[in-house]
């Protein structure tokens, strides 16, 4: 597979050693539930992970939980709870909301609070090597000590500096220097350190976790485009200053979600929580909405857009469910199987080239189109089934089109009642052989009929049913 890395701006071959892809995706800060824009990287990179797994690779998928951060402290004050309580309740909600989007749980979900000793160790080494300096209990990374600073975001230092001057702090040697360790203020969570009590900054967290769980160099480091600068630039500067090795082989960033062209953000007040969007539209319309577009580009969110995706999903399902009630025989023609084989190759080609989910879903829609054509051209039920089977199989790693036809399970009792009633009618009309035939066929299915003064009653016996199940009975 080839993926375009934000760092090199070229297509890079994903060449995992020993068939294992080590993948790190920046996770949530747990001070609130996440919005539908935050959901985009969770969902896109989950799909990438599942696709890689479907190709026989092992994926170690690490996603951190930032449970120390200014926003959590602010939220705790607002809610009259401790920062720990706020973080733990929103961590739980995070997993619920991600599951509702069909996102598979990561291999590891490390919490920042579990990594404080490792972060202190990284910061200590950076200070020792002259990449960081201490000012009254705060520790700052010195951007001037990292000559390649800016290489990920592609910004040059002068341009960055002129932008940063507004936020100048006399504590820092350079306006771009960023905090690695913050001395704690009264009432804030604190950990002891060589520089006094305090708490680590966000940018060190991911470095500590990558190094601990994936080694010095991850295969893929991913997140939303808004993380390129400063978060990922700062992660990279720290890690590479320490190890001299790349923090990641490939950097991936998804485009941001917008609302009427404006970035969706908590601070802008134009957001919608992901869970409310799932409640309104269901999971698959959202997955389809995201995966049917170029995930690298900005995407404008609207309920109409998701509804339209929902209609596309429904059209595919109605075909799949209908196709699956078609007989298997006669099987699809050789020629048609070759055509389906071509579609399958094109589906994988799309995904293998920069994980082009939009292109791949376009190919799936072609397979759906083939199934439609074979359905109307009577005489090839096997072809319709083969196309439907292919759609199901290919869509699986994208988390789409796996629902089975809405069940008829609840109908069983009513159908037995109906057959018992029909047998009664046959007997009234003295059509005894047909009535007896019906009784015998039901008996073979494990449904025993007993005629009595109150009419006929039925029961399902456990012994006579292969599948087992508890005995039931009903009046007729
Ligand atoms: Zn991160």
Low-confidence segments, ≥5 residues, pLDDT <50? 466-471
Give the strand content: 15-25%
Total domain count: 3
CATH superfamily of the largest domain: HUPs
- In what order do the strands lie side by side in the largest sheet? 4-3-9-10
**How many strands appear in the DSSP assignment?**
16
CATH topology of the largest domain: Rossmann fold
Mean pLDDT: 92
First and last CA, distance: 62 Å
Helix share, percent: 40-55%
Q: Which class do the helix and strand fractions yield?
A: alpha/beta
Written account of the structure:
The chain has 476 residues and is an alpha/beta fold. The protein folds into three domains: 2-254, 3-Layer(aba) Sandwich (Rossmann fold), CATH 3.40.50; 303-398, Four Helix Bundle (Hemerythrin (Met), subunit A); 410-475, no CATH class. The chain is built from 15 helices and 16 strands. The chain has helices spanning 39-54, 70-79, 83-100, 116-128, 157-164, 202-214, 228-243, 274-281, 283-291, 303-323, 334-352, 357-376, 381-395, 412-428, 432-444, and strands at 2-4, 11-13, 20-25, 58-63, 132-135, 138-141, 178-183, 198-200, 218-224, 248-254, 257-259, 262-263, 299-300, 447-452, 455-460, 472-475. The protein has a four-stranded parallel β-sheet with strand order 4-3-9-10, sandwiched between helices. A hairpin with a 2-residue loop joins strand 14 and strand 15. Helix 14 packs antiparallel against helix 15. It starts with a strand and ends with a strand. Mean pLDDT is 92; it is low at 466-471. Zinc ion is lined by residues 26, 206, 231, 235.
């Amino acid at each position: 597979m080839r993926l375009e890395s934000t760092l090199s701006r070229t297509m890079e071959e994903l060449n995992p050693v020993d068939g294992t892809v080590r993948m790190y995706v920046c996770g949530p800060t747990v001070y609130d539930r996440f919005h539908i824009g935050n959901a985009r990287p969770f969902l896109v990179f989950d799909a990438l992970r599942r696709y890689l797994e479907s190709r026989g690779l092992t994926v170690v998928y690490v996603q951190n939980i930032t449970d120390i951060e200014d926003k959590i402290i602010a939220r705790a004050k607002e809610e009259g709870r401790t920062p720990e309580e706020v973080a733990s309740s929103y961590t739980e909600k995070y997993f619920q909301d991600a599951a509702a989007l069909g996102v598979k749980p990561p291999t590891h979900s490390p919490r920042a609070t579990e990594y404080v000793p490792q972060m202190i160790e990284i910061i200590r080494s950076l200070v020792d090597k002259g990449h960081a300096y201490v000012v009254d209990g705060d520790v700052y990374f010195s951007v001037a000590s990292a000559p390649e600073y800016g290489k990920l975001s592609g910004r040059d230092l002068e341009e960055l500096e002129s932008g940063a001057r507004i936020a100048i702090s006399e504590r820092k040697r350079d306006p771009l220097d960023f905090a690695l360790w913050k001395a704690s203020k009264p009432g804030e969570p604190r950990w002891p350190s060589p520089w006094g009590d305090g708490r680590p900054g966000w940018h060190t967290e991911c470095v500590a976790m990558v190094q601990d769980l994936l080694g010095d160099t991850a295969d893929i480091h991913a997140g939303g485009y808004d993380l390129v600068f400063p978060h990922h630039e700062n992660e990279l500067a720290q890690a590479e200053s320490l190890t001299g090795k790349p923090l990641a082989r490939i950097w991936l960033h998804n485009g941001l979600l917008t609302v009427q062209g404006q970035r969706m953000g908590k601070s802008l007040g134009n957001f919608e929580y992901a869970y409310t969007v799932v409640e309104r539209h269901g999971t698959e319309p959202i997955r389809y909405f995201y995966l049917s577009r170029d995930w690298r580009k900005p995407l404008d969110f609207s309920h109409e857009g998701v509804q339209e995706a929902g209609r596309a999903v429904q059209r595919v399902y109605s075909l799949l469910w209908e196709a699956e009630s078609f007989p298997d025989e006669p099987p699809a023609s050789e020629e048609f199987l070759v055509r389906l084989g071509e579609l399958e190759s094109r589906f994988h080609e799309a995904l293998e080239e920069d994980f082009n989910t939009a292109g791949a879903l376009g190919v799936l829609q072609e397979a759906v189109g083939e199934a439609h054509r074979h359905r109307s051209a009577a005489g090839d039920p096997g072809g319709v089934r083969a196309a439907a089977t292919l759609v199901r199989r290919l869509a699986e790693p994208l988390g789409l089109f796996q629902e089975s036809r809405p069940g008829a399970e609840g109908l069983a009792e009513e159908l037995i009642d109906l057959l018992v009633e029909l047998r009664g009618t046959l007997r009234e009309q003295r059509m005894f052989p047909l009535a007896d035939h019906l009784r015998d066929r039901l008996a073979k299915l494990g449904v025993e009929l007993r005629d009595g003064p109150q009419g006929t009653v039925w029961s399902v016996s456990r012994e006579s049913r292969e599948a087992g199940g508890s005995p039931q009975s009903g009046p007729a």
